[in-house]
């Protein structure tokens, strides 16, 4: 097995990693290697037995495993090298990878380029600081998903779900289909965290109560969860006295946010954007460290797996070009988040090439105009934090940019009419 | 049920019980230690900021206090002990921040008192030097009192090290064994537990939060203990490099200790807000968490709540809580011969080495014959920690046992080999694996590794996965098999 | 006159529409939608609410206890529960390939249940 002269090393083999590796190969990279810590390719797709994947990428409504399967077939066909059950433990800023597996023990690799595709992790109870005891029966939604859909275990039969992120809503329906009583999905904001489609098909379909502007204020049970206390919150998201209610349950699932997983990126000296939690990247998805690229949820948390794959493809293609020392347009214009914009990816663009911008808003707003400097303007009926914006800009539009910074902002149409 | 017999029964497998067991294993004679939980150090021991070798760090260490003497006598003993047991020990030093002239004069008194007791090494640090030593903390401090001796340990690993060393040297250890009744006969005790009865001559009552309850079983409670609940928060390892020393600010309100310290594993610990509470109620309240955060922000002003990865509350038993600071219990009973009680509250881990020697002396005075155990081995080897080994040794380990090449906990880089080893050393629960290997203590708090650890536990213990618990007793993780609930509806 | 509330999932707006139904079950009026595609979706959803069912079935293989499956076309929403209970009795025998029919003609709907992952042993 050859582990030298690697053109592109991809870390992670989920919908990002596989797409990046395939694209790198299609771009002409000879030796592409995928490093995957689990026993099979596909990352978290295997535990996502529900559908809704590939609606745009394949124009079909696929389940997670089916979506993964399409990519796995291509990885095999293209002769991409794969190292399974191999955990990358270190990356240096000169692109040296240290990895561990049970065959070679410790591996040292020095590929010509690296694509970071490690995805993200879930926020845990510790980070939420929910008061109360620390019994068994509290899981993040993704961990529960693994138990229910892969390992064959149901954590409990009376479940409360904290957070209306997509994974939480999907688990609400999955658990109901397994005979579990999902007593409520509790959401601190006045609107759901995930897609409306999931609110309908996961909650409404199964008559699961959605309690907006509520949160769990205490956990009860010394050994195994026995109940949670729930309360309504005010505008500042603080619990309102007197609204507390005790709900008997044996399981609490947490679906309160995903965080890009960037320990390796940090080790390599990759600069992270505090607004996304992921690396600062240019439109080629290169980080500040030469030859290290990133794509997918490791850069920013996506809504659709289709976008994860598309974005990772950019990183894969760029890594292949870098490996053969091809120049990429490097004039950098900085994108600045303006009014009601939480973040923008990529953080810089070349303005010499077509580009797709991804952005998220901070607050829900209706009847707005999305603006990119003076070069782009679009009316939107509604913008929500849980539904990412995609803006395609052409080279000819971008050529009109004069300054080194360009602002992306949301303007309220109503305000302009009054002002 | 089993009928056992021993010479010395130690009740409690926390750091004190374990230290006594290890100390007694230097001598001939049968010793049995019983622990109520499934693993060691899960009571007061782990409700801990991990700091040892204190002495002059607080004004509460007065020479007239017994516990002060135990802590001071333990200072030269702790590092050699940790080396013998192959457990982590790191000298970080302490900076007690001085915010104003009033605090300065208090600290001057403290320093001179420490010097009179022979505790040297304290130094005053001025503002500029403080800024150099700790550039990331609050700029409000005008200086600090520096104690270079303060160190940090891992209290649970230390406890396990003590237990294993004691076992190695002949001490019998039983887990999930709770003492229910004690009766006195002629020259011995008859002790009833949930797993059989024990006849013994001497009892060392090191039962942590139940010390007074156990003493009452022989009508020997010559002391009153108050359950005090302490809250500790743990910060992400990313912040580990922010401070080098243990930093401490004087409490601004009673019970609100304000300490921020590195841990031996690279996290930062902060705490601890203490308040009287119902014994056994280990819940952390919102108010306490808020106070904890407010206090640590006095040291790290820009700390975001998001950096807290975990927090917990546990109990320490204090004597004389109502008169301010407390004394400890290390005494032979006034009423019952050969019955020694030991409870230190704070700082129990720090005082353990000297306390264990004192207990041995108390036992001798009660009639125990101390004859050297010629086969005593002081060195105990800890199981390997993969990610701390140099690459060559990592390769060797994987070649010897390929399970060391399978990383299970991605946040802390813990391998299957280490988890299997921990199970061989007695871990049977998710928390047992957590405390022994750190799997589940990282950023994702077990989100990724829990299903895998459960599988390994089930496999190694020969149990179905639904029998695996978080921390023993009724804390099962998985209540139903797939489709089991649906089948009930068919 | 009865009323039914349906949330449109055509776009992120998620318009909450209300349908007025007469005693024959015919839709008399729809309010709350903002575009004609939404109106169309809501009407279809009322008349013929269908869903793809995704589930897992048991394999009796300790290394892979579950096989993920799906209906290859949507089935009536009202049949989801019965379909789920039907699948409880189905066991997967390897070898199975993605797309392989596990249970043909689920509840006489003409829709098949197919594997969405491989199961080799």
Uncertain runs of chain A are none
Share of residues in strands of chain C: 25-35%
CATH topology of the largest domain in chain A: FAD/NAD(P)-binding domain
Helix and strand element order of chain C:
EEEHEEEEHEE
Our Rg estimate of chain A from Cα atoms comes to: 22 Å
What does the model show?
Chain A has three domains: 179 residues, FAD/NAD(P)-binding domain (3-Layer(bba) Sandwich), CATH 3.50.50; 133 residues, 3-Layer(bba) Sandwich (FAD/NAD(P)-binding domain), CATH 3.50.50.60; 86 residues, Sandwich (Immunoglobulin-like). Chain A contains ten helices and 29 strands. The mean pLDDT of chain A is 94. Chain B has 13 helices and 24 strands. Chain B has three domains: 221 residues, FAD/NAD(P)-binding domain (3-Layer(bba) Sandwich), CATH 3.50.50.60; 159 residues, D-Amino Acid Oxidase, subunit A, domain 2 (D-Amino Acid Oxidase, Chain A, domain 2, 2-Layer Sandwich); 82 residues, BFD-like [2Fe-2S]-binding domain (Arc Repressor Mutant, subunit A, Orthogonal Bundle), CATH 1.10.10.1100. The radius of gyration of chain B is 23 Å and the shape is globular. In chain B, helix 1 packs across helix 8 and helix 2 packs across helix 8. Chain C has 121 residues and is an alpha+beta fold. Strand 12 of chain A pairs antiparallel with strand 24 of chain B.
Outline:
The complex is a heterotrimer of chains A (419), B (490) and C (121). Chain A contains 10 helices and 29 strands.
Protein topology:
The complex is a heterotrimer of chains A (419), B (490) and C (121).
Chain A: E1 8-11, H1 15-26, E2 32-35, E3 51-53, E4 62-63, H2 64-77, E5 81-83, E6 87-91, E7 97-101, E8 105-109, E9 113-116, E10 120-122, H3 125-128, E11 138-140, H4 141-151, E12 153-154, E13 158-162, H5 166-177, E14 181-187, H6 196-204, E15 210-212, E16 214-220, E17 227-232, E18 245-248, E19 251-254, E20 258-260, H7 263-267, E21 292-294, H8 305-323, E22 333-337, E23 341-345, E24 348-349, E25 355-361, E26 365-372, E27 376-383, E28 389-393, H9 395-398, E29 405-412, H10 413-418
Parallel strand pairs in A: 1-2, 1-9, 2-5, 9-21, 11-19, 13-14, 13-19, 14-15, 22-29
Antiparallel strand pairs in A: 3-4, 6-7, 7-8, 10-20, 16-17, 17-18, 22-24, 23-25, 25-28, 26-27, 26-29
Helix pairs in contact in A: 1-2, 1-8, 4-5, 5-6
Chain B: E1 3-5, E2 8-11, H1 15-24, E3 31-34, E4 51-52, H2 66-85, E5 89-91, E6 94-98, H3 101-116, E7 123-126, H4 127-133, E8 143-147, E9 151-153, H5 155-168, E10 172-174, E11 179-185, E12 188-193, E13 196-200, E14 202-205, H6 211-217, E15 225-235, E16 246-249, E17 256-262, E18 268-276, H7 286-299, E19 308-319, E20 329-332, E21 339-343, H8 348-365, H9 391-400, E22 407-409, E23 414-415, H10 416-424, H11 430-437, H12 450-461, E24 480-481, H13 484-487
Helix pairs in contact in B: 1-5, 1-8, 2-8, 10-11, 10-12
Chain C: E1 2-7, E2 16-21, E3 27-31, H1 36-47, E4 50-51, E5 54-58, E6 66-71, E7 75-76, H2 80-88, E8 101-103, E9 113-115
Antiparallel strand pairs in C: 1-2, 2-3, 4-7, 5-6, 6-9, 8-9
């Amino acid at each position: 097995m050859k582990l030298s002269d690697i053109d592109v090393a991809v870390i992670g083999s989920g919908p990002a990693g596989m797409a990046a590796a395939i694209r790198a190969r299609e771009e002409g990279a000879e030796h592409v290697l995928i490093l995957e810590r689990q026993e099979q390719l596909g990352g978290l797709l295997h535990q996502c037995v529900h559908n809704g994947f590939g609606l745009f990428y394949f124009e079909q409504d696929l389940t997670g495993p089916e979506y993964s399967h399409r990519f796995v077939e291509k990885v095999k066909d293209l002769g991409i090298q794969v190292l399974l059950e191999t955990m990358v433990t270190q990356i240096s800023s000169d692109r040296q990878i240290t990895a561990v597996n049970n065959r070679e023990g410790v591996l040292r690799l020095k590929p010509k380029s690296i694509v970071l595709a490690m995805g993200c992790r879930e926020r845990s109870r510790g980070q939420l600081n929910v008061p109360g005891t620390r019994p068994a029966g509290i899981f993040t939604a993704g961990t529960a998903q693994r138990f229910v859909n892969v390992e064959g275990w149901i954590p409990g039969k009376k479940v409360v779900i904290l957070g209306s992120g997509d994974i939480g809503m999907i688990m609400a329906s999955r658990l109901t289909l397994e005979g579990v009583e999902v007593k409520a999905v509790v959401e601190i904001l006045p609107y759901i965290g995930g897609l409306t489609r999931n609110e309908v098909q996961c909650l409404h379909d199964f008559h699961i109560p959605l309690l907006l502007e509520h949160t769990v204020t205490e956990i009860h049970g010394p050994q195994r969860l026995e109940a949670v206390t729930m309360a309504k919150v005010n505008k500042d998201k603080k619990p309102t006295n007197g609204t507390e209610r005790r709900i008997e349950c044996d399981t609490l699932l947490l679906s309160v946010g995903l965080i890009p997983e960037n320990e390796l990126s940090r080790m390599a000296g990759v600069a992270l954007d505090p607004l996304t939690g992921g690396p600062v990247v240019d439109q080629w998805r290169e980080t500040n460290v030469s030859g290290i690229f990133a794509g997918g949820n490791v850069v920013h948390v996506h809504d659709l797996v289709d976008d994860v794959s598309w974005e990772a493809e950019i990183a894969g293609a760029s890594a292949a070009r870098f490996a053969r020392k091809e120049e990429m347009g490097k004039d950098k214009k900085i994108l600045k988040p303006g009014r009601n914009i939480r973040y923008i990816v990529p953080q810089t663009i070349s303005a010499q090439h077509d580009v797709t911008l991804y952005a998220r808003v901070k607050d829900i707003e209706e009847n707005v105009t999305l603006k990119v400097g003076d070069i782009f303007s679009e009316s939107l009926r509604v913008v929500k934090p849980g539904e990412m914006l995609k803006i395609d800009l052409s080279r000819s539009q971008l050529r009109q940019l004069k300054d080194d910074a360009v602002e992306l902002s949301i303007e309220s149409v109503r305000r302009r009419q009054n002002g | 049920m089993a009928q056992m017999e021993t010479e010395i029964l130690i009740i409690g497998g926390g750091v004190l019980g374990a230290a006594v067991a290890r100390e007694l294993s230097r001598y001939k004679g049968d010793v049995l230690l019983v622990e109520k939980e499934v693993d060691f150090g899960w009571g007061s021991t782990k409700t801990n900021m991990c700091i040892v070798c204190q002495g002059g760090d607080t004004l509460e260490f007065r020479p007239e206090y017994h516990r002060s003497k135990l802590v001071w006598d333990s200072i030269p003993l702790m590092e050699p002990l940790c080396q013998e047991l192959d457990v982590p020990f790191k000298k970080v030093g302490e900076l007690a921040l001085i915010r104003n002239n009033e605090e300065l004069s208090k600290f001057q008194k403290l320093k001179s008192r420490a010097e009179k007791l022979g505790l040297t090494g304290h130094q005053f640090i001025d503002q500029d030097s403080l800024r150099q030593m700790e550039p990331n903390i609050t700029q409000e401090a005008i200086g600090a009192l520096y104690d270079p001796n303060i160190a940090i340990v891992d209290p649970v690993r230390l406890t396990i090290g003590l237990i294993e060393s004691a076992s190695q040297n002949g001490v019998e250890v039983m887990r999930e064994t709770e003492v229910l009744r004690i009766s006195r006969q002629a020259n011995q005790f008859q002790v009833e537990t949930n797993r059989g009865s024990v006849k013994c001559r001497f009892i060392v009552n090191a039962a942590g939060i139940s010390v007074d309850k156990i003493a009452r079983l022989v009508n020997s409670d010559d002391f009153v203990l108050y359950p005090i609940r302490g809250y500790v928060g743990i910060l992400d390892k990313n912040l580990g490099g922010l401070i080098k020393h243990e930093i401490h600010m004087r409490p601004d309100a009673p019970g609100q200790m304000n300490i921020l310290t590195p841990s031996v594993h690279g996290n930062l610990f902060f705490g601890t807000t203490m308040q009287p509470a119902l014994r056994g109620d280990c819940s952390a309240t919102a108010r306490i968490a808020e106070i904890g955060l407010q206090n640590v922000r006095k040291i790290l002003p820009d700390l975001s709540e998001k950096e807290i990865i975990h927090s917990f509350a546990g109990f320490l038993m204090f004597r004389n809580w109502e008169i301010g600071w407390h004394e400890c219990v290390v005494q032979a009973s006034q009423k019952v011969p050969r019955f020694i009680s030991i409870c230190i509250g704070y700082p129990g881990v720090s005082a353990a080495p000297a306390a264990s020697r004192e207990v041995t002396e108390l036992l001798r005075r009660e009639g125990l014959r101390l004859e050297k155990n010629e086969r005593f081995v002081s060195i105990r080897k800890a199981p390997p920690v993969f990610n701390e080994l140099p690459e060559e040794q990592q390769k060797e380990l994987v070649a010897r046992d390929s399970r060391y090449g399978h990383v299970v906990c991605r946040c802390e880089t813990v391998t299957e080999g280490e988890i299997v080893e921990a199970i061989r050393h007695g871990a049977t629960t998710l928390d047992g694996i957590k405390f022994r290997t750190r799997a589940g203590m990282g950023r994702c708090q077990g989100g990724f590794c829990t299903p895998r650890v459960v599988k390994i536990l089930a496999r190694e213990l020969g149990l179905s996965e639904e029998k695996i618990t978080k921390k023993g007793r009724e804390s099962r993780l998985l209540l139903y098999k797939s489709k089991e609930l649906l089948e009930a509806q068919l | 006159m009865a009323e039914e509330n349906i949330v449109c999932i055509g776009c992120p707006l998620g318009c909450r529409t209300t349908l007025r139904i007469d005693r024959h079950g015919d839709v008399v009026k729809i309010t709350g939608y903002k575009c004609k595609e939404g109106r169309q979706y809501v009407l279809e959803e009322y008349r013929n609410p269908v869903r793809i069912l995704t589930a897992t079935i048991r394999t009796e293989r300790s290394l892979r206890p579950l096989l993920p499956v799906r209906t290859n076309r949507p089935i009536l929403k009202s049949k989801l529960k019965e379909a789920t209970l039907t699948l409880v009795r189905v066991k997967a025998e390897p070898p199975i390939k993605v797309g392989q029919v596990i249970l043909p003609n689920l509840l006489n709907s003409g829709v098949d249940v197919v594997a969405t992952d491989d199961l080799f042993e």
